[in-house]
Amino acid sequence: MQPVEQLPVNTPAELPSPALLVFPDRIAANIRRMIDMAGGPERLMPHVKTHKMAPVVKMQLEQGITRFKCATLAEARMLAEAGASDILLAYQLNAPMATAFVDLQHAFPDIRFASLADNIASARLMNDLHATYPGSKAILYIDIDNGMHRTGIAPDKTAELWRALQSLPNVLPAGLHVYDGHIRDTDLAARTRICDEAFAQVEKLAAELKVPEIIAGGTPTFPIHARRKHVTCSPGTCLLWDEGYGTGLPDQPFLVAAQLITRVISKPQEGYITLDLGHKAVSAENPITRRVFFHGLPDYEVISQSEEHLVVKTPAAATLQVGDILYGTPWHVCPTVALYNEAIVIENGAYSNTWPIARGRKLI
Q1: Is 82:56 a contact under the CB 8 Å cutoff?
Q2: In 3D, which of 343, 342, 356, 330 has the Cα closest to residue 277?
Q3: Dihedral in degrees, nearest 10, Cα atoms 62, 68, 71, 73
Q4: Residues 324, 330, 332, CA angle at the centre, nearest 5°?
Q5: Is this model's pTM higher than 0.90 or not?
Q6: Are residue 263 and residue 192 in the same domain, yes or no?
Q7: Same domain assignment for residues 228 and 265
C-alpha cells in the first residue's frame, strides 16, 4: 500500500467540518499512473462514479482520455457538459429513466451515448424510444455475468441475445460489457488466475460473435485486463483511492487523493472524544472498524457512530481539545463522496475553491 500520510492543509481553521477534501496534484498523479498502466489513454473508459466531478473529467480530457463510464443520469449530464465525446451509462435502463436518457442523448447530438442490456425486453424499450427520433440508434452493450451474479446474462445465452439485438431496427449492438467486481483477492497472482479463468469464456464468445469491443473490469482487475490489448479498461476508484483498496490491492501504485476533515465536538468521558463524522459524513455500509482511518492518531478505537457523531477511544483524548482537527481516510470513498454536494479543493496546502459533485437521481 502507498503510504497514507496526513495530507498538508496549511490553514485548516478556515475549513468547515465535516467536509470532503480533494487534492488535484494527487489526482493528476493517479491519472498519469492509470494511463501508464493501460498503455495509453485510448485504452481507457474510466468510471466517474467515484468522484462525480467535472474538473476531474477535464483533467483526464487534458491527458487524452475522451471516453467515460457512469452510473446515473446526473453523472451522464455532468460528463456531457464537461466535454466527454463518448459516454456509457453502465446500467440497464427502465422507464422513465430510459426516456430521460434518450432525451439527453438528443440534447447533445455530437456525443456518442450508450447503455447496457441483458435481456430483449430492455433492448426493445430502447429501440422503441429511439423510434421517436428518425435515424436515431440505441447503442447497446450486452452486460455479461461472468461470476458476480449481480446483473448481466450468462455467456452461454449471449449469442442468442446478440442476434436478437441485431434484428432491432433502432439498435446498434456495440459489444460486450463485463464487470468482475467480485474478483478482489489481495494476492495479485490469485486475482490474475481467477480473472483469467472467468474471462476466458468471454474472449471465446467475443471471437465467435465478432463483437466490435469488450469493456471489462474495474479497479481491482484493471492491471490484469490492461494486458489484453483488445480490451477497453474502466477503472474508477483509482482516481481518488481509499483505505479499502489501498489495503486490499497493495500491488497498485495509486495515491489517496481525498480525505475527510473532522473536529472534536465533545469529550464525554475520560479517554474518549466525539467527532462530527457521523453516518451522513462517511460511508457506513461496512463494520464500524472499517469506515474511516485516522493516520495522524496512532492509537485509537472507534466505539460508536450515529447520524452526526463518531465516538473514539484514544489515549490522545488527554491532550485533544474541543475544536481540534483530525483528518480521516474513508475505507470506501465512492459512497462517501456521494454524501457531499461539493468537495473542498486543496492546492499547495491551502483552500483553493470547491468542486460540485453530480449526485442525485432526478430526471433531467
Answers
A1: no
A2: 330
A3: 70
A4: 165
A5: yes
A6: no
A7: no
